[in-house]
Structure formats: C-alpha cells, structure tokens
Design a protein that fits this description.
The complex is a heterodimer.
Chain A: H1 3-42, H2 45-79, H3 81-87, H4 91-115, H5 122-151, E1 156-159, E2 162-165, H6 168-172, H7 175-209, H8 217-254, H9 256-262, E3 274-279, E4 291-295, H10 298-304, H11 314-325, H12 349-376, H13 386-394, H14 397-412, E5 417-419, E6 433-434, H15 445-476
Antiparallel strand pairs in A: 1-2, 3-4, 5-6
Chain B: H1 3-30, H2 32-35, H3 39-49, H4 53-70, H5 72-81, H6 83-102, H7 109-139, H8 159-183, H9 187-203, H10 205-218, H11 221-242, H12 246-268, E1 271-273, E2 283-284, H13 285-288, H14 292-319, H15 331-335
Antiparallel strand pairs in B: 1-2
Helix pairs in contact in B: 1-4, 1-7, 1-8, 1-12, 4-5, 6-7, 7-8, 8-9, 8-10, 8-12, 9-11, 10-11, 10-12, 11-12
The chains are: A mainly alpha, B mainly alpha.
Chain lengths: 515, 340
C-alpha cells in the first residue's frame, strides 16, 4: 500500500471511531439536560436519579470523544498537508471557530456542571449543563459546515492554484450543511433514544423477575427512561427521514454520481427505480455486472419529488466527468502513484450501495424497537419476554451502525474528489481537489503505517475498557437509598472516599467525582 | 499592526495561554509520584486540577486551530515535519484524558494506581512533545524549499526540539508545585512550597536558554527587555515562595512564561518555521497566511468570542477558588448553602 491508501485508512478508522462517541455525546447530552430540567421544575426524585445515572454514562463516553477528537484536528496537517494548504482559506477558520466558540463552552461548563453540584445555585447549575450541550451542538454545526464545504464548495473563487474565500456567510449557510447538520442531530437523538430504551427495558425486566416493587423511585427511573427513549426514537426517526429526504434531493443535484452509485443505477432511467437488493460479481466495479430487485418510480421521487424525473446512470456520468475533469490524472509527482493513471469517477459501488442500505435499515430497526418499547410498556406494563428485551438491548448498537454507515457512504461516495466540484458554478471557476493530491508529500508510508497501527491498537484497547466500564456501570443501575446525595447539598462536603473515617464508597451515580 | 501580525500575536497568545494554564495541570500530574506518595495527597492533587484540565486543554485545540485557520502554510509544514512526534503527543493527551475520567469509575487500589500512573505518563509525554514542537518551530526544522522535511522521520527532533521539550517540562513541574501551594492546605501545601523553593531557579534555565537563543538569532531591543523581565520573574518567584507568599509566587511564575513566550514569538516574527538548511527556505507569516478577508472574519469572531471565553473561564476559577484540604470538613461547613 502506498502512503495515500494508508492515510485514507487511518482517516477512515479514526473518524468512524470518533463518531461512535459523538452522537451519544450530543444525543444523550440533550436528554440529560432535559432530565435535569425536569428535576429542577418538578423536584421529583426519579428525575434527579435519571440525571445522575444517564449523566454518568454521558461523561464516561464524553471523555473518549474529546480524546479522539484531538486526533481529528491534527491529522489534517499531519497526513493531509497538501489538502490543508489547498483549503486553508476556508477550512481552518471553521475548525478554529469551532474550538473558540464551541469547545471552550462545552469543556468549561461541563467542568462546572460536574463539580458544581451544591456549589452554585440550582438554576445556574442547570444552565451550565445546557451551556455545555449547546457547545456540543454548535461544534457539530461548525465541523459539518467544514465537511459540507468539501461536498459542496460555496463562497469561494479560485485564486491562482487555491480557492480564496469571498463569502463566509455562504459557507456557514451552505444548504448542504443545513441538511447534513439536521440529519446528524436527528441521528444522534436516535442513538440516545435507543440507549434509554434498551437499558431501561433490561432493568425493568430484571426488577420484575426479582419481584422488586413497582412503586419505588428506581422503578420510575427505568420506566420514564423507556418511555422517554421510545418517544425520542420515534420522533427522531421522523426527523431523520425528512432531513434525509432533503439531503437526497441535494445529492441528486450536487453529487449525482454518489446518488446513482448508492443505487447501483448503471443506465440513465426515467422514471428511475429504487433498488432494494443488488448482487454482482464479487469485487467487480463494473456497473454492468450488477443486478437489482427494484421498486419502480421510487428513485425519481427520492431524487426530485416526482415519479418521472430522469436519474442519470453511472455509465453516463462517468463519461461526463471524464470529459469535464480529465480521463487521467495529470502526470505530476504530486499525484504520487496515480500520476498519469486513468481516473475512476465512480465510487466503490458495493461500499456506497450497501452502506446506504445499512444506514436506512438500522434506522428502521431503531424506530421499530422504539415503537415496541412504547407499546410494551403501555399503562404500566413491564415486558419480560427475553427475546424482545435482549433484542432491544442489542439494538442499542443499531443507530451507531446506522450513523457510521451514513458517514462511510457520504465520504466514500464523493471519491475520487476530496473537494467535490460544485455544479452550480461554471466549469472554469469550479473549485475541486482530488484525494490523490491531498496527502502530505514529505511523510513516508512507514511513518503513516506506524501511526495507523499505533492509533488502531490504542483505540481498540480504549474501546474495550470503555465498554467494560459502561456495561459494569449500567448493570449496577441507579443506587438508591441513603447513599444518594441530598439535592442542594454538596457531595464535595462529604469526606473523600479513601480517607480514614470517610465513607468506603461514594454512590456510583455521584457526578462530582472524588478527586 | 496589519491583520497578519494581529493573527501572529493571537496565535502566540493562545500558545502562551495554553502553556500557562495547562502548564500547571501538566505539572501537578508530573508531580504525582513525587508529592503524591500518600493516597490522601494524591487525591488532593487530582482534585485540584479536576475541574480545570479539560478547559485548559481547549487552549491547545484553539491554538492549533488558529495556526491552521490563519497560517495554513505553517500548519502544513510544521505538523508533517514532526509527524511521529506529534502522533506521540496525541497518544499522551488521549491516555491522559481518559485516565482522568476513568480513574474513579471503578474502585480498587490497583485500578486507581494504574490510572494515576497513566495520568503522569500521558502528561509527561504531552508536555515534552508540545515543548519539542514549539522549540522546533521557533529554533529550526530541516525543511527544503517546498516546506518538506529532509532527512527521515526523526530529522525534526534535533537539539531545538530537545531544548523546547525540557523547557516546557521544567517550567510546568514548578508551575504545578506553586499551583498546589496556592490551592491546597496541610502537609501537601508545605511539600509543594518546599519543592518550588528548591527547584524554581533551575527549572527555568532551559526556558530562558530557549528564549535567549531566539532573541540572539533575530531579536529586537524589546525582546531583550522581555527576556530580562522573564529572568527577573524567576528570581521574584524564588524569593516570594521562600517567604511563603504563594499567590505572588504564582503570579511571578506565570509572568516567567508570559515574558519568555513573548521573547520567543516576538523575536521569531515574521518567521514561523525557520529552516536549518537554508534561511532562504524559512516559512514566514506572509508565505503561510490566508487572505485578508478570512483574517477579517476571524478577527470579528475572535473579538467577540475571546472576551466571553475569558469571562466564563475566569468564573470557573472563581467558583473553584476554595483551598482544598484533606481534612474532613466540619458538618456545619457541609450544610452551609454555597452560593457563587
């Protein structure tokens, strides 16, 4: 493998991994803030316990998101320096603004929330959590605006050999960004909804089998968690579908090759059918090897909102792009091994096709589990069917997989470009950049391979610890009884856990840690 | 002052803010095996930086982000030239962050001591690595006319990097001790004070050497004056900590970094990556900068954003201003409703 392939694997692995934490941070952050708000408003103890339990899950996950996010900021420069030079006038400022306007907010106020129990007035303390959560959401907007600019570069003109920014507001209000942001936030809410449902059902069932009372606070905690999670899953699914449809229509205009690759649509068709299942010769990138079961008219609807619009096929688009952007890479050393080679404008068909379906399928699974949970817990019922309950627990993974598949689809689907040409602009003024020319020229394959192996190994080890900690914490559940800190009083005021005379153990759901 | 110079100053301010703020939490973490042999002291040390380290670390993210945003040519030359060292810094920061959070997620002595060691190791790696990177970008990297590193994966790690690494670590360790003296009470406070009194003059030497070298290469009378301020502040710190004036010592030690970083960045300007091969290959502010339009947009954003950030970060420090003590607090103190 040459340095380009290794660097792409590294970016893919680290980014998909980072995005395991991100949607849980965003989605659960919003829900914990809602729980905390409910506690402040109603003073009901179950909301406090929910805040503390889910807040702890949120924090265990949050820190890994922060840690792996660091790698993201640096790897543009480390492995993709030519990309960084090319997009510098636009891309870097979005990252800097993300740090300045969002990360500071997120980290500072989260610190205040964690350690602020009882130290600051109750409502101000609640506001610190909202500030942190808003920070997360704002950071999502900036980074998605940066990504969307790569998908659909706006607000720039070519100036010499790199784009120059002329309209920052256009970059911020890029329609691609608005669509992707709303889709991503809805996807994040699905992740948190699934977690509440799966874990809540598991605890409810366990308590019922153990004949635990259904009148105490802990029962209320799990029941409310399931109900809240179920509603959020369903509502978020509706949002995901609406925003996804909006995105699909933009994709048809802005990146037609991604659309037809997602459908393995070889020949232009009017009306175009939606492919449900396709098969091909294994590993073949030849479009004509693909055979599909299809639903007629549906793709025309997804692309353009009617049942007749023509959707261009892969073969036609490949010819069109080759005519516009060249049939071969320039014979220039900056293109590495690919210099002078023919350009394949079609993304890997199997990857785009199946990730697109995986994304949609996992979304459907989550929505179905959410609906099941609401139905199974109606009027105080508690489901005990092990298949259904353990299935719901397992289905916590579904929206994670769906999110990852969506990103893999959209990023692989824009290859071979790292900055995709914007079709709204005249060909002569278009800004675009091939992935092949983006990699750092001065860095050797050995260096990138070393970091790829190192990062993958560390990330793998961290994933094991994180899952073990989360599983252990979640299994233990909310610790009731007198150990729970009194609202309004500082857990800091209590003696440190390891001190002589101190309590042996703080309740696990205490958010303010025993430093 | 034109926009490029403004942003060079902004980048310098962000790196300096990072070194001053994260410096003390790096230092506290590095001192865990020294001052935190007793579990009580260890926990007190970790509690003192618990609410602050994450906010401090964002200064690093913002500093790196500002380099990318304002000077992509700097970012795209500096990072790949030190590819593996930077990856090592990232490892340090990753394991450190998760260790802070995971340490108290399980309750056994083994678990606690393992993650405490990880915090120390990660902080040492990160402090040394950031110091090495800053040393290299102000004292020199072997880059050719295209800004590409010459000489293999570790060619960037010459004496400038080593000097920068030792300087940042030395500074941070004493900074951590002075911080602990300010922030805690009991035996730990005394031990931290003793440590700072003994080591502050020595620990500042690499930093002063680094600042002095950049000044000698390309300094101005102003940077020379700043260097003197830095050297003087070392003496003030030492004198103040010996008479137990911890707050003043902390201020003076912060001034050591402010003045040293001022010397370094002030003397380095307008070069952002000096080439050790040929000064004709130096990357300057003008080579590396984005357009004036983008700088203007960012100036507006930072002009509004930065004061707000400074405001709420200051508020955090105010909320957690109380001295920490290992002695169990009286029940009355615990019952007292605390308001900010």
């Amino acid at each position: 493998m040459d340095v380009l392939d290794i660097a792409r694997w590294q970016f893919g692995i680290t980014t998909v991994y980072h995005f395991m934490m991100v949607p849980l941070t965003i989605g659960l952050g919003v829900l914990v803030a809602v729980m905390h708000t409910m506690w402040v408003r109603t003073d009901k103890p179950e909301w406090l316990r929910m805040t503390r339990f889910w807040g702890r899950v949120y924090l265990i996950n949050f820190v890994l998101g922060v840690a792996t996010g660091l790698v993201q900021e640096f790897q543009f420069g480390l492995a993709w320096s030519e990309y960084s030079r090319f997009v510098g006038d636009v891309f870097g400022s979005l990252l800097a603004l993300e740090a300045l306007l969002a990360f500071f907010l997120e980290s500072t106020f989260l610190g205040l929330w964690i350690f602020g129990w009882g130290r600051i007035p109750k409502k101000v303390h609640l506001a610190t959590l909202w500030a942190a959560v808003i920070g997360s959401v704002v950071s999502a907007y900036f980074i998605i605006a940066a990504n969307s600019w790569m998908q659909h570069p706006v607000g720039v003109v070519m100036d010499g050999d790199a784009p120059r920014q002329v309209d920052f507001l256009a970059v911020l209000t890029n329609n691609t960004a608005v669509a992707a942001f709303s889709h991503t936030i809805a996807g994040a809410l699905m992740v948190s909804g699934a977690a509440l449902v799966g874990i809540g059902l598991w605890h409810l069932r366990r308590r019922k089998l153990a004949d635990a009372p259904t009148t105490d606070v802990d029962h209320a905690v799990w029941r409310r968690s399931v109900r809240l999670g179920g509603f959020v899953s369903l509502a978020a699914f509706v949002l995901v579908a609406i925003t996804g449809d909006f995105q699909g229509k933009l994709m048809y205009e802005q990146q037609p090759l991604k659309m037809s690759s997602a459908e393995a649509l070889c020949e232009t068709a009017a009306p175009a059918p939606f492919s449900v299942f396709a098969w091909s010769k294994f590993g073949s990138q030849e479009c004509d090897d693909v055979h599909s079961w299809t639903v007629p008219y549906l793709l025309s609807y997804l692309a353009h909102g009617d049942f007749s619009t023509a959707v261009p096929g892969v073969d036609e688009l490949q010819t069109e792009y080759a005519a516009a952007y060249g049939a071969t890479y320039p014979d220039d050393p900056s293109f590495g091994d690919l210099a002078g080679e023919p350009i394949d404008y079609t993304p890997l068909l199997a990857t785009t096709y199946w990730n697109f379906r995986l994304m949609i399928g996992m979304g459907l699974v989550s929505a179905a589990v959410g609906a099941y949970a609401l139905w199974a817990t109606r009027k105080g019922r508690v489901p005990t069917n092990p298949v259904a309950v353990y299935g719901s627990l397992l289905a916590i993974g579904a929206p994670f997989v769906g999110n990852a598949a969506g990103w893999i689809f959209t990023e692989m689907g824009r290859q071979p470009f790292v900055v995709y040409p914007n079709p709204d602009v005249d060909r002569a003024d278009q800004v675009y950049f091939f992935t092949a020319q983006a990699v750092s020229p001065g860095v050797s394959a050995g260096e990138v391979m070393t970091s790829l192996i190192g990062l993958t190994a560390v990330y793998g080890a961290l994933a094991i610890v994180e899952l073990w900690l989360l599983a252990r914490f979640v299994r233990r559940g909310v610790t009731g009884g007198d150990g729970a800190p009194t609202p309004g009083h500082t857990p800091e005021g209590t003696p440190d856990e390891d001190l002589p005379g101190g309590r042996d153990q703080e309740p696990d759901d205490v958010l303010s840690f025993a430093y | 002052m034109d926009l490029q110079m403004t942003w060079f100053v902004a980048v310098a301010v962000l790196w300096t803010g990072f070194l001053v703020l994260e410096g003390f939490d790096f230092g506290v973490a590095a001192l865990l095996p020294v001052l935190g042999r007793r579990p009580v002291d260890r926990h007190l040390m970790l509690r003192s930086i618990g609410p602050l380290w994450d906010g401090n670390e964002v200064w690093l993210i913002t500093a790196a982000g500002a380099v990318f945003a304002a000077f992509p040519g700097w970012y795209a030359t500096w990072l790949p030239a030190l590819y593996l060292p930077f990856v090592l810094v990232l490892f340090g920061l990753i394991i450190r962050a998760v260790a802070f959070e995971w340490r108290h997620s399980h309750h056994t002595a083994q678990w606690d001591s393992t993650w405490t060691h990880v915090i120390t190791a990660g902080s040492l790696i990160a402090a040394l690595g950031v110091g090495a990177a800053l040393g290299a970008t102000t004292l020199g990297l072997p880059i050719d006319a295209d800004g590409n590193r010459v000489g293999g994966a570790f060619a960037g790690v010459g004496w400038p990097a080593v000097l920068g690494a030792v300087a940042v670590l030395g500074y941070s360790v004493v900074h951590g001790a002075v911080f602990l003296a300010c922030k805690t009470d009991g035996p730990l406070r005394l031990a931290a004070r003793r440590f700072a009194a003994r080591w502050s003059p020595v620990a500042a030497l690499p930093l002063l050497a680094w600042a002095g070298l950049v000044h000698l290469r390309s300094g101005t009378p102003a940077t020379g004056l700043l260097w003197l301020v830095a050297a003087l502040s070392v003496l003030v710190t030492w004198a103040r900590i010996r008479v137990d004036r911890e707050g003043q010592a902390f201020t003076a030690w912060a001034l050591v970094m402010l003045a040293s970083a001022g010397t370094i960045f002030g003397a380095a300007y307008p070069v952002v990556v000096p080439s050790t091969i040929d000064s004709a290959f130096d990357v300057t502010v003008a080579d590396a900068s984005v357009s004036d339009y983008t700088l203007t947009v960012m100036t507006w954003a930072a002009g509004f954003g930065l004061p707000v950030v400074l405001g709420y970060q200051a508020w955090t420090y105010w909320v957690f201003r109380k001295r920490l003590s290992a002695e169990p607090q009286s029940p009355e103190a615990a019952e007292e409703p605390v308001t900010a």
